[in-house]
Amino acid sequence: MKRILPIGGVAAGLLATALVTPPASAADDVKAVPLASTGIAAKNIVAYWYANDAANLIGATPYDVETKVVAKHVSTGGPAADSKPGVVPAIGDEKKSTAKSKNVNLPKTSGKVFFLGTDGKPHWATATSVQSAYRNLVATAGHAVYDTESNGQTLDYWVFIPGYYQGKTPWGIYVGKQAFTHYDYDVYEDGDRDYAFVTVYNGLKAPHDGVTSGKSKPSGVFSSGGTGWNQLGGWVEVTKEVYDQYKGFDTFIGDIDQVHWNGKTYYFVWKFADAGRLGDNVGGQGLAYNQKVGKPVFVFGYPSGSHPDGNYAYSGKTLKWSYGKTFAASASAIKAEELIGVKSSFTGEGALGSSWLVGYKNTRRLGYLNGVTIGVSDTDSNNRYDTSVSPYFDGELFGVYSAAKNLWSGSIA
Predict the structure, then answer these.
(1) DSSP per position, 260-281
(2) Which sequence spans correspond to the domains of the chain?
(3) Cβ-based neighbours of 103, under 8 Å, separated by 6 or more
(4) 29 class by beta-carbon count within 10 Å (0-12 exposed, 13-18 middle, 19+ buried)
(5) Which of 128, 216, 343, 366 has the most CB atoms lying inside 10 A of its own CB?
(6) Which CATH code is given to the segment(s) 6-97+108-202+278-404?
(7) Contact 289, 398 (CB under 8 A)
(8) Which InterPro entries match (predicted)?
Protein backbone atom coordinates (compact mmCIF):
# COMPACT_ATOMS: atom_id res chain seq x y z
CA MET A 1 0.00 0.00 0.00
CA LYS A 2 1.41 3.38 -0.98
CA ARG A 3 1.37 6.12 1.63
CA ILE A 4 0.58 9.76 0.90
CA LEU A 5 2.87 11.80 3.10
CA PRO A 6 3.13 15.57 3.77
CA ILE A 7 6.69 16.93 3.76
CA GLY A 8 8.28 20.36 3.99
CA GLY A 9 11.19 22.56 5.17
CA VAL A 10 13.94 24.88 3.92
CA ALA A 11 17.54 25.50 5.10
CA ALA A 12 20.95 26.32 3.64
CA GLY A 13 24.61 25.67 4.41
CA LEU A 14 27.98 24.45 3.17
CA LEU A 15 29.70 21.08 3.04
CA ALA A 16 32.46 20.66 5.59
CA THR A 17 35.38 19.18 3.70
CA ALA A 18 37.70 18.31 6.57
CA LEU A 19 38.05 14.70 7.58
CA VAL A 20 37.27 14.54 11.29
CA THR A 21 37.00 11.92 14.00
CA PRO A 22 33.68 10.11 13.48
CA PRO A 23 31.05 10.03 16.21
CA ALA A 24 30.60 6.99 18.36
CA SER A 25 27.46 4.93 17.77
CA ALA A 26 25.80 2.43 20.07
CA ALA A 27 25.71 -1.10 18.68
CA ASP A 28 22.08 -1.37 19.77
CA ASP A 29 21.13 1.21 17.10
CA VAL A 30 22.22 -1.11 14.28
CA LYS A 31 20.11 -3.95 12.92
CA ALA A 32 21.98 -6.63 10.92
CA VAL A 33 20.18 -9.37 9.00
CA PRO A 34 21.68 -12.11 6.76
CA LEU A 35 20.59 -12.20 3.11
CA ALA A 36 22.54 -15.20 1.78
CA SER A 37 24.54 -16.71 4.60
CA THR A 38 26.17 -19.51 2.57
CA GLY A 39 27.90 -19.65 -0.77
CA ILE A 40 25.57 -22.38 -1.96
CA ALA A 41 22.53 -20.24 -1.24
CA ALA A 42 24.18 -17.30 -3.01
CA LYS A 43 24.90 -19.39 -6.11
CA ASN A 44 21.27 -20.45 -6.25
CA ILE A 45 20.23 -16.78 -6.15
CA VAL A 46 22.47 -16.07 -9.15
CA ALA A 47 20.94 -19.06 -10.90
CA TYR A 48 17.46 -17.60 -10.39
CA TRP A 49 18.40 -14.34 -12.11
CA TYR A 50 20.44 -15.85 -14.95
CA ALA A 51 18.16 -18.81 -15.77
CA ASN A 52 16.26 -18.96 -19.06
CA ASP A 53 18.31 -16.28 -20.80
CA ALA A 54 18.11 -13.96 -17.76
CA ALA A 55 14.31 -13.88 -18.04
CA ASN A 56 13.82 -12.75 -14.44
CA LEU A 57 16.28 -9.87 -14.84
CA ILE A 58 14.75 -8.70 -18.08
CA GLY A 59 11.19 -9.13 -16.83
CA ALA A 60 11.70 -7.36 -13.50
CA THR A 61 9.66 -4.20 -12.93
CA PRO A 62 10.61 -1.07 -10.94
CA TYR A 63 9.83 -1.12 -7.23
CA ASP A 64 7.72 1.88 -6.27
CA VAL A 65 6.51 0.97 -2.79
CA GLU A 66 6.04 4.09 -0.63
CA THR A 67 7.81 6.42 -3.06
CA LYS A 68 5.02 8.90 -3.82
CA VAL A 69 4.74 11.77 -1.31
CA VAL A 70 2.89 15.08 -1.14
CA ALA A 71 5.32 17.92 -0.43
CA LYS A 72 4.65 21.21 1.31
CA HIS A 73 7.51 23.65 1.91
CA VAL A 74 7.87 25.39 5.25
CA SER A 75 10.37 28.06 6.20
CA THR A 76 11.51 26.84 9.62
CA GLY A 77 12.96 23.73 11.16
CA GLY A 78 15.04 21.07 9.51
CA PRO A 79 17.72 18.49 10.27
CA ALA A 80 20.55 19.26 12.64
CA ALA A 81 23.93 17.56 12.91
CA ASP A 82 24.25 15.31 15.95
CA SER A 83 28.06 15.60 16.01
CA LYS A 84 30.89 17.09 13.96
CA PRO A 85 30.70 16.79 10.16
CA GLY A 86 32.91 14.22 8.50
CA VAL A 87 33.68 12.51 5.23
CA VAL A 88 35.01 9.13 4.09
CA PRO A 89 36.98 9.39 0.82
CA ALA A 90 35.91 7.38 -2.21
CA ILE A 91 37.85 4.35 -3.42
CA GLY A 92 40.87 5.60 -5.34
CA ASP A 93 40.09 9.21 -4.45
CA GLU A 94 41.88 9.47 -1.13
CA LYS A 95 43.97 12.29 -2.61
CA LYS A 96 42.15 15.48 -3.53
CA SER A 97 41.58 16.35 -7.18
CA THR A 98 40.91 19.89 -8.38
CA ALA A 99 40.08 19.09 -12.00
CA LYS A 100 36.70 20.33 -13.23
CA SER A 101 34.54 19.71 -16.28
CA LYS A 102 31.23 21.04 -17.55
CA ASN A 103 30.11 17.67 -18.91
CA VAL A 104 28.61 15.15 -16.49
CA ASN A 105 30.35 11.80 -16.64
CA LEU A 106 28.08 9.16 -15.12
CA PRO A 107 29.54 7.10 -12.25
CA LYS A 108 30.38 3.44 -12.76
CA THR A 109 29.37 2.81 -9.15
CA SER A 110 25.63 3.12 -9.82
CA GLY A 111 23.49 0.15 -10.72
CA LYS A 112 20.30 -1.71 -10.04
CA VAL A 113 19.39 -3.95 -7.15
CA PHE A 114 17.08 -6.85 -7.99
CA PHE A 115 14.93 -8.77 -5.52
CA LEU A 116 11.58 -10.48 -5.08
CA GLY A 117 8.86 -8.10 -3.91
CA THR A 118 6.07 -8.87 -1.50
CA ASP A 119 4.02 -9.97 -4.52
CA GLY A 120 6.56 -12.72 -5.22
CA LYS A 121 7.58 -11.10 -8.50
CA PRO A 122 11.01 -9.76 -9.54
CA HIS A 123 11.56 -6.02 -9.05
CA TRP A 124 14.44 -3.55 -9.14
CA ALA A 125 15.56 -0.28 -7.58
CA THR A 126 18.70 1.88 -7.66
CA ALA A 127 21.85 1.57 -5.51
CA THR A 128 25.53 2.48 -5.50
CA SER A 129 28.88 1.01 -4.48
CA VAL A 130 30.52 2.82 -1.54
CA GLN A 131 33.91 2.79 0.13
CA SER A 132 34.64 -0.08 2.54
CA ALA A 133 37.62 -2.01 3.85
CA TYR A 134 37.00 -5.02 1.56
CA ARG A 135 35.43 -3.06 -1.32
CA ASN A 136 32.19 -4.98 -0.98
CA LEU A 137 29.54 -2.50 0.18
CA VAL A 138 26.35 -1.20 -1.45
CA ALA A 139 24.12 1.67 -0.26
CA THR A 140 20.42 2.11 -1.06
CA ALA A 141 17.08 2.98 0.51
CA GLY A 142 15.97 0.92 3.48
CA HIS A 143 12.77 -0.22 1.82
CA ALA A 144 14.75 -1.51 -1.18
CA VAL A 145 16.14 -4.11 1.26
CA TYR A 146 13.68 -4.47 4.13
CA ASP A 147 10.13 -5.72 3.64
CA THR A 148 7.93 -2.97 5.09
CA GLU A 149 4.77 -4.20 3.37
CA SER A 150 4.39 -7.52 5.19
CA ASN A 151 6.69 -6.57 8.09
CA GLY A 152 9.05 -9.36 7.13
CA GLN A 153 12.78 -9.13 7.56
CA THR A 154 14.37 -8.65 4.14
CA LEU A 155 13.42 -8.95 0.48
CA ASP A 156 14.47 -12.26 -1.10
CA TYR A 157 17.04 -13.03 -3.80
CA TRP A 158 18.79 -9.67 -3.40
CA VAL A 159 21.57 -8.86 -5.89
CA PHE A 160 23.37 -5.73 -7.10
CA ILE A 161 24.32 -5.27 -10.76
CA PRO A 162 26.38 -2.14 -11.56
CA GLY A 163 25.86 -0.81 -15.07
CA TYR A 164 22.96 -3.17 -15.76
CA TYR A 165 21.31 -2.78 -19.17
CA GLN A 166 18.62 -5.06 -20.65
CA GLY A 167 19.96 -8.32 -19.30
CA LYS A 168 23.61 -7.37 -19.62
CA THR A 169 25.81 -7.45 -16.50
CA PRO A 170 29.08 -5.82 -17.60
CA TRP A 171 30.88 -6.12 -14.27
CA GLY A 172 29.13 -9.21 -12.97
CA ILE A 173 26.35 -9.91 -10.49
CA TYR A 174 26.90 -9.41 -6.74
CA VAL A 175 24.79 -11.33 -4.23
CA GLY A 176 23.92 -9.59 -0.97
CA LYS A 177 25.41 -11.32 2.07
CA GLN A 178 24.27 -9.18 5.01
CA ALA A 179 22.06 -6.09 5.33
CA PHE A 180 22.49 -3.29 7.87
CA THR A 181 20.07 -0.55 8.82
CA HIS A 182 19.09 1.49 11.83
CA TYR A 183 17.12 -0.30 14.54
CA ASP A 184 14.41 2.38 14.36
CA TYR A 185 13.76 1.65 10.70
CA ASP A 186 13.73 -2.11 11.02
CA VAL A 187 11.42 -2.04 14.04
CA TYR A 188 9.42 1.19 13.74
CA GLU A 189 9.78 2.03 10.00
CA ASP A 190 11.09 5.46 10.96
CA GLY A 191 11.44 7.44 7.71
CA ASP A 192 14.41 9.36 9.10
CA ARG A 193 16.32 6.04 9.02
CA ASP A 194 15.19 4.76 5.62
CA TYR A 195 18.64 3.72 4.42
CA ALA A 196 20.58 0.47 4.23
CA PHE A 197 24.10 -0.81 3.62
CA VAL A 198 24.59 -4.30 2.20
CA THR A 199 27.78 -6.34 2.07
CA VAL A 200 28.05 -8.36 -1.14
CA TYR A 201 30.04 -11.40 -2.18
CA ASN A 202 32.56 -11.20 -5.01
CA GLY A 203 30.79 -10.93 -8.33
CA LEU A 204 30.11 -13.77 -10.74
CA LYS A 205 30.70 -13.34 -14.43
CA ALA A 206 27.86 -13.51 -16.93
CA PRO A 207 27.63 -15.57 -20.12
CA HIS A 208 28.51 -13.87 -23.40
CA ASP A 209 25.75 -11.62 -24.68
CA GLY A 210 23.35 -13.36 -27.02
CA VAL A 211 24.38 -16.89 -25.99
CA THR A 212 21.80 -19.21 -24.48
CA SER A 213 22.20 -19.58 -20.73
CA GLY A 214 21.10 -23.22 -20.57
CA LYS A 215 24.04 -25.58 -20.00
CA SER A 216 24.20 -29.24 -20.89
CA LYS A 217 24.78 -32.03 -18.39
CA PRO A 218 28.18 -33.73 -18.40
CA SER A 219 28.08 -36.80 -20.64
CA GLY A 220 31.17 -38.39 -19.15
CA VAL A 221 33.65 -38.20 -16.31
CA PHE A 222 35.74 -35.53 -18.02
CA SER A 223 32.86 -33.51 -19.45
CA SER A 224 33.00 -29.72 -19.42
CA GLY A 225 30.22 -27.19 -19.23
CA GLY A 226 27.86 -26.65 -22.15
CA THR A 227 27.53 -23.68 -24.46
CA GLY A 228 26.63 -20.36 -22.88
CA TRP A 229 27.70 -20.91 -19.30
CA ASN A 230 31.43 -21.19 -19.99
CA GLN A 231 31.91 -17.59 -18.88
CA LEU A 232 30.27 -18.44 -15.57
CA GLY A 233 32.54 -21.40 -14.89
CA GLY A 234 32.54 -25.14 -15.58
CA TRP A 235 31.81 -28.55 -14.15
CA VAL A 236 34.07 -29.90 -11.38
CA GLU A 237 34.06 -33.28 -9.74
CA VAL A 238 33.30 -33.37 -5.98
CA THR A 239 32.72 -35.94 -3.28
CA LYS A 240 29.24 -37.29 -2.60
CA GLU A 241 29.21 -35.35 0.69
CA VAL A 242 29.72 -32.03 -1.14
CA TYR A 243 27.23 -33.06 -3.83
CA ASP A 244 24.57 -33.74 -1.19
CA GLN A 245 25.00 -30.20 0.20
CA TYR A 246 23.87 -28.80 -3.15
CA LYS A 247 20.76 -30.93 -3.50
CA GLY A 248 18.48 -28.52 -1.69
CA PHE A 249 19.54 -25.70 -4.01
CA ASP A 250 19.25 -27.51 -7.37
CA THR A 251 16.27 -25.31 -8.19
CA PHE A 252 16.81 -23.14 -11.23
CA ILE A 253 19.53 -24.31 -13.62
CA GLY A 254 20.51 -27.82 -12.54
CA ASP A 255 23.91 -27.03 -11.13
CA ILE A 256 24.60 -30.59 -9.95
CA ASP A 257 24.78 -33.92 -11.77
CA GLN A 258 26.07 -37.45 -11.37
CA VAL A 259 27.51 -39.77 -13.99
CA HIS A 260 27.69 -43.57 -13.85
CA TRP A 261 30.72 -44.91 -15.69
CA ASN A 262 32.51 -48.26 -15.52
CA GLY A 263 30.51 -49.30 -12.48
CA LYS A 264 31.32 -46.16 -10.50
CA THR A 265 29.33 -42.99 -9.76
CA TYR A 266 30.96 -39.60 -10.23
CA TYR A 267 29.52 -36.40 -8.74
CA PHE A 268 29.69 -32.96 -10.29
CA VAL A 269 28.75 -29.41 -9.34
CA TRP A 270 28.93 -26.26 -11.43
CA LYS A 271 31.81 -24.01 -10.37
CA PHE A 272 31.14 -20.35 -11.11
CA ALA A 273 33.81 -17.92 -12.36
CA ASP A 274 34.80 -15.18 -9.92
CA ALA A 275 34.43 -11.59 -11.22
CA GLY A 276 36.32 -10.10 -8.28
CA ARG A 277 35.39 -7.50 -5.67
CA LEU A 278 32.80 -4.86 -6.42
CA GLY A 279 34.99 -1.88 -5.49
CA ASP A 280 37.91 -3.18 -7.53
CA ASN A 281 35.70 -3.36 -10.61
CA VAL A 282 33.67 -0.15 -10.43
CA GLY A 283 35.10 1.86 -7.52
CA GLY A 284 33.14 3.11 -4.54
CA GLN A 285 31.75 6.51 -3.56
CA GLY A 286 32.85 8.22 -0.38
CA LEU A 287 30.45 9.13 2.43
CA ALA A 288 29.58 12.52 3.94
CA TYR A 289 27.53 12.96 7.12
CA ASN A 290 26.45 15.80 9.42
CA GLN A 291 26.75 18.24 6.52
CA LYS A 292 25.08 21.65 6.37
CA VAL A 293 21.95 21.67 4.24
CA GLY A 294 21.99 23.72 1.03
CA LYS A 295 24.98 22.29 -0.81
CA PRO A 296 24.47 21.30 -4.48
CA VAL A 297 24.16 17.57 -5.11
CA PHE A 298 24.05 15.31 -8.13
CA VAL A 299 21.34 12.65 -8.00
CA PHE A 300 22.06 9.51 -10.04
CA GLY A 301 19.40 6.89 -10.57
CA TYR A 302 17.19 4.87 -12.90
CA PRO A 303 13.83 6.69 -12.80
CA SER A 304 10.99 4.97 -14.63
CA GLY A 305 7.30 5.43 -15.19
CA SER A 306 5.07 8.44 -15.67
CA HIS A 307 4.26 11.70 -13.93
CA PRO A 308 0.78 12.07 -12.40
CA ASP A 309 -0.39 13.75 -15.63
CA GLY A 310 0.46 10.59 -17.59
CA ASN A 311 3.64 11.91 -19.23
CA TYR A 312 6.01 8.97 -19.51
CA ALA A 313 9.27 10.75 -18.80
CA TYR A 314 11.76 7.93 -18.15
CA SER A 315 12.19 4.35 -19.33
CA GLY A 316 14.34 3.14 -16.43
CA LYS A 317 16.75 1.49 -18.87
CA THR A 318 19.65 3.92 -18.54
CA LEU A 319 21.25 5.89 -15.71
CA LYS A 320 20.02 9.50 -15.43
CA TRP A 321 21.08 12.49 -13.33
CA SER A 322 19.63 15.65 -11.84
CA TYR A 323 21.28 18.52 -9.98
CA GLY A 324 20.20 20.99 -7.31
CA LYS A 325 20.67 22.36 -3.81
CA THR A 326 19.30 20.45 -0.84
CA PHE A 327 16.70 21.87 1.53
CA ALA A 328 15.24 20.62 4.81
CA ALA A 329 12.03 18.59 4.81
CA SER A 330 9.81 16.51 7.08
CA ALA A 331 7.15 13.79 6.78
CA SER A 332 5.16 13.33 9.96
CA ALA A 333 3.11 10.43 8.60
CA ILE A 334 6.22 8.23 8.68
CA LYS A 335 7.67 9.88 11.79
CA ALA A 336 10.28 11.57 9.60
CA GLU A 337 11.25 15.02 10.86
CA GLU A 338 14.81 15.24 9.52
CA LEU A 339 14.65 14.66 5.78
CA ILE A 340 16.31 16.66 3.02
CA GLY A 341 14.87 17.42 -0.40
CA VAL A 342 16.20 18.47 -3.81
CA LYS A 343 14.46 19.73 -6.91
CA SER A 344 14.36 16.86 -9.41
CA SER A 345 12.04 15.65 -12.14
CA PHE A 346 12.74 11.99 -11.37
CA THR A 347 9.61 9.87 -11.27
CA GLY A 348 9.17 7.50 -8.33
CA GLU A 349 9.33 4.13 -10.02
CA GLY A 350 12.95 2.98 -10.18
CA ALA A 351 14.35 6.13 -8.55
CA LEU A 352 14.15 4.51 -5.12
CA GLY A 353 17.70 4.30 -3.73
CA SER A 354 19.21 6.87 -6.15
CA SER A 355 22.54 8.22 -4.85
CA TRP A 356 22.92 11.88 -3.80
CA LEU A 357 26.56 12.87 -4.30
CA VAL A 358 28.14 16.05 -2.95
CA GLY A 359 31.58 17.20 -4.09
CA TYR A 360 31.26 15.05 -7.21
CA LYS A 361 34.53 15.02 -9.21
CA ASN A 362 33.58 14.72 -12.83
CA THR A 363 36.96 13.47 -14.05
CA ARG A 364 37.10 10.63 -11.53
CA ARG A 365 33.32 10.08 -11.35
CA LEU A 366 33.57 10.07 -7.58
CA GLY A 367 32.15 12.12 -4.75
CA TYR A 368 30.58 11.69 -1.32
CA LEU A 369 27.28 9.89 -0.80
CA ASN A 370 25.07 12.25 1.22
CA GLY A 371 21.58 10.90 0.57
CA VAL A 372 19.45 8.16 -1.04
CA THR A 373 16.08 8.77 -2.61
CA ILE A 374 13.15 7.40 -0.59
CA GLY A 375 10.35 9.40 -2.25
CA VAL A 376 9.35 11.86 -4.98
CA SER A 377 6.81 14.65 -4.85
CA ASP A 378 4.75 17.13 -6.87
CA THR A 379 5.15 20.27 -4.75
CA ASP A 380 3.26 22.75 -6.91
CA SER A 381 0.28 20.50 -7.76
CA ASN A 382 0.82 20.66 -11.53
CA ASN A 383 0.80 16.86 -11.85
CA ARG A 384 4.57 16.69 -12.46
CA TYR A 385 7.05 15.36 -9.93
CA ASP A 386 9.57 18.07 -9.09
CA THR A 387 11.22 17.01 -5.80
CA SER A 388 13.07 14.00 -4.41
CA VAL A 389 13.58 13.38 -0.67
CA SER A 390 16.18 11.53 1.39
CA PRO A 391 16.97 10.89 5.05
CA TYR A 392 19.48 13.37 6.50
CA PHE A 393 22.83 11.61 6.86
CA ASP A 394 23.94 12.13 10.47
CA GLY A 395 26.14 10.38 13.00
CA GLU A 396 23.62 7.59 13.47
CA LEU A 397 23.81 6.78 9.78
CA PHE A 398 27.59 6.73 10.09
CA GLY A 399 27.15 4.24 12.92
CA VAL A 400 25.22 1.89 10.63
CA TYR A 401 27.83 2.34 7.90
CA SER A 402 30.62 1.64 10.41
CA ALA A 403 28.99 -1.65 11.41
CA ALA A 404 29.12 -2.82 7.78
CA LYS A 405 32.27 -1.28 6.32
CA ASN A 406 34.86 -3.63 7.82
CA LEU A 407 33.16 -6.98 7.20
CA TRP A 408 34.63 -9.46 4.73
CA SER A 409 32.40 -11.34 2.28
CA GLY A 410 34.69 -13.41 0.07
CA SER A 411 34.06 -15.41 -3.09
CA ILE A 412 31.23 -17.82 -3.86
CA ALA A 413 32.85 -19.13 -7.04
Answers:
(1) EETTEEEEEEEEEPEEE-HHHH
(2) 6-97+108-202+278-404, 206-272
(3) 362
(4) middle
(5) 128
(6) 2.40.10.120
(7) yes
(8) Peptidase_S1_PA, Peptidase_S1_PA_chymotrypsin
